[in-house]
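Incident log entry.

Two folding requests arrived from the same account within the same minute. Monitoring flagged them as a possible duplicate submission, but the sequences differ. Recording both here for audit purposes.

Request one:
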Amino acid sequence: MNKTNTKDIKEDIINTAMPNIAFDGLNWEMICNSAEQAGYSKNTAESVFIHKMKDVLQTISEITDKNMLEALEAINPDDLPIRQRIKIALLERFKYLSQHRDALTQSMQYWIIPSNKPRAARIVWQSADTIWSWAGDTSKDYNHYTKRILLSGIITATTLYLLNNKECSDADLEDFIDRRIENVMTINKFTSRFKK
């Protein structure tokens, strides 16, 4: 059944498109064909993805975050230390992405183009903010921004690790995330001492 909410329409089209990426590539023509496959017209893709592929890739990231949050529904973050909350959220996010490597690979090829990097940075920031919000962060001072900058770095590094290590197991991914979090905590402790 066709939806009327723009966000729902975007998700319908992208969820239909995801299995097609391995065969047809991540491109505008494939998105338009996937819109038809999902029961919409090709014109619908143009009306909801105003900036075309930039909006398509942002929607893929938003769907990834949505799936991450759904996987976290059974977990009460208040029962866990902050470090564990962030780790679990990252693991769920990248478990989803590991099932969609073709989309991840082609998304990265698009975002590494210099003119696209500012939009890419905003999208990664949005994911970092989603994770920190789930983890219960309510800071409003410079810590709000520092936490999201550092987590954005972990998200980017883990994305590259996943792309460069196609055979990595869940345990490998967890070990990598543990190391990145440890590095960030070391940097954060040094910065805190420096400010004092």
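Request two (distinct sequence, not a duplicate):
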Amino acid sequence: MELEVLKITGESTGRKVQLNENIYGIEPNDHCIYLDVNLIRANQRQGTHKAKTRSEIAGSTRKLIRQKGTGGARRGDINSPVLRGGGRVFGPQPRDYGFKLNKKVRLLARRSALTYKMRDAEIAILEDFTFDSIKTKKMVEVLTNLKVNGGKNLFVFPATDTNVVLSARNIQRTQVTLARNLNTYDILNAKKIFILESSLPQIEEILG
């Protein structure tokens, strides 16, 4: 399959690039996409939630009432979970929500996501570009020229370009990432993906 290479002005360069069928034209696997997106979302969770147990509550350890004969539950000290202000039973504790997922499954998920985007014509190839200075206005002009201003856009660069990253930082729903960091969630979350021409070999090396 072929895609034409666009300039940041929105015009065609007159050149076309050949895309790898094994990355952009496979039979998608929805279950692998589901697993990989779940893993990415789980890794984004901080997992810092915490509730105090009865041993962590500040209070007297004196036994308030006798054990039997009251007709109520056994409660012990004032830190008992039975009482208001006491510790919490089985409350949330800090934890890591990540889980193991095989590398081949993750690679298949990314190829499947790119295939869906290719089918929907939501992938475009841009010639390499950079900015001389940090100007949000320049990035807005690029989005306007490409007719995607206001949508969810993902730009895939081969290496970190500080001027472009900082120019796009304040624009809502516009993300700049590296080819080596491209993941399934970012691919599916974007309405339009712009891959720089020099990023294609890196993507093919990782996913091919």
